[in-house]
Amino acid sequence: MIKYRIIKRPLVTEKTVLLKEEANQFAFEVDRAANRIEIRNAVEKIFKVKVASVKTIQVKGKTKQKGRIIGKRKDWKKAIVRLLPGERIEFFEGA
After folding, report:
1. Structural domain boundaries enclosing 45
2. Domain count within the chain
3. DSSP labels, the chain
């Protein structure tokens, strides 16, 4: 897989900002077919950092209803990447 297709977008929420500050971990939305090794390689190549570990989570899409119309948001995959001590991603420093 191409590295830019594996990492779809960074997740910047209150919880992920706390993870960044306390544990040097960063969260990304990733391709559902990507495995941990592909995610690790993509993060290391895109951001030029060393990755200590990768955790992945399959997030189920919520069912939403507006009146009688019922819809569903898409399922997606989240990756939490822990960097080695001393490494940081400059992209997140402004957040």
Report:
1. 3-86
2. 1
3. --HHHHEEEE---HHHHHHHHHH-EEEEEE-TT--HHHHHHHHHHHH---EEEEEEEEEPPPEEEETTEEEEPPPEEEEEEEEPTT---GGGTT-
